[in-house]
Amino acid sequence: MSVLVVGSVALDTVETPFGAREEVLGGSATYFSMAASYFTPVQVVGVVGRDFPERHFDLLKSRRVDLDGLTRAEGRTFRWRGRYCNQMNEAQTLDTELNVFEQFNPVLPASFVDAPFVFLGNIDPTLQCRVLDQIAHPRLVAADTMNFWINRKAEALRETLARIDLLFVNDAEARSLSGETSTVRAARQILRMGPRVVVIKRGEYGALLLDEQGFFAVPAFPTADVRDPTGAGDSFAGGFMGFLARVGEVTPSTLRQAVAMGTLLASFTVEGFSLERLSDVTPTQLLERFNRLRAMTSLEPLPDDLAIFEDACAARLLEG
Amino acid sequence: MSVLVVGSVALDTVETPFGAREEVLGGSATYFSMAASYFTPVQVVGVVGRDFPERHFDLLKSRRVDLDGLTRAEGRTFRWRGRYCNQMNEAQTLDTELNVFEQFNPVLPASFVDAPFVFLGNIDPTLQCRVLDQIAHPRLVAADTMNFWINRKAEALRETLARIDLLFVNDAEARSLSGETSTVRAARQILRMGPRVVVIKRGEYGALLLDEQGFFAVPAFPTADVRDPTGAGDSFAGGFMGFLARVGEVTPSTLRQAVAMGTLLASFTVEGFSLERLSDVTPTQLLERFNRLRAMTSLEPLPDDLAIFEDACAARLLEG
Fold it and tell me: Which CATH superfamily is domain B3-319 in?
């Protein structure tokens, strides 16, 4: 099954300790699409300006990403300029030019309204709802958000939350959305607002999936070569949703595998600037990392008896 | 087999959003001993002052913690005063009184020199080496350290590192010790300094074990009730070393189980102030958390074929 994404398509200027790039392809919908395209056809809803380079369309189209919902408007494309310092885990935004994105009003082509899997990228929750209004009968709707919307559009965000199945957030967003300081309590609180699954993205520390059944935790894939973290979160969401759309079944087991796939697509993204590395992954490389991730989290069961416990202590405690 | 620990025994005054405690039992050797005591007999090397309450000795002795190496010196016991704010992941030290700990010179009783498993708590690396000088033929030596020693006693610390099998550090310490910004590269660099295993403690994000064979990652056990994080790292080390000493075999599989046990003992510690919760764990509770931790990290294998990949894309990539 295909997956629909609404979000930004941008030109990024990025600087990290490992290099710099000017006006390269970026944006949440872009990273999401490229990651999801390994698994399934993707439909993009977004807007770019007249200055958007033709070659970027070609790259996405070569991956069977359907750009019929990507409007080309009068004006300049959305631009982001940022820098990562030594720790590499937080972007310092130097400049944001919304440009054509400021007047963005998502209108879906007729061919998009039957989308079964939907990802609402990190945009104004009012627009997220407007997209949902146009979709006939989605099977799974996921959304991303950020503190800007949590603080300034709380009411609209509540409406989005009531209409989605799955929310992607980081720890700080989960805490601020719920008012709880513990991530576990925060996630439980969010589950009461609508979504039946919450995925906490923790960057270099991995990801956590929480639902009524419990928890699933996976570490980030330990890559030694982090060159540019831009787009890691959107690649995570793209790998996650693309995988789920491909297998077509949302079960506890496929949700876990989806978290793993999101983690792996993000691990490729951060190894290069822009989509340099993400656009060049082979299925063999992806499967190899999947198997290494499984191996690196596998824990053998303990023997059934209590012989691992200190005898006297165990005896005393079992008495009590 | 038994485990020997050298480190601080302290009186802590702690404040968190969930309450406060004055002059309660604390210190790295204390948390370590209590955690390890679930698995194996423990020998403590340390120092307290004349003011150290008798009831604390009784608590440790009731767990078969051997205090023959705990000197009672003229003067006051080491005291730490700290506070945790909303995020709960970093202690703010308000006051440290070294007192008798300032002149601490570890001298091992004759009954301690055959210790097979040894944990050198976070003390001056010169003293860590002095302890090792007194141990006849240890089977496994682990150590903890901190940025204070990394920056001020670099040379002595190099000597410690050359003599140990396993190092416990957090991300910041690993980076500062190695000069690398990526944790993976940092750990690889540390493996060249002596230890054959590095364990990265990441607090609420879990732990990572790295050796020549590769990685093992485990999330923190997701407890909803974090009341006081003091002692979590030392409880982790105690659970880890106590479990290994108990099973007596250091294999890839027991090392992983040891990381899990460390994680679980830390999860109990943070649920109460001081040793309130850590001293009251039953083997059944520990086994139950172990099984839940296994369940929450288990990832099923993918089908062998490539049918999960988008057909055209997979075909194109496999050609290339």
Answer: Ribokinase (3.40.1190.20)
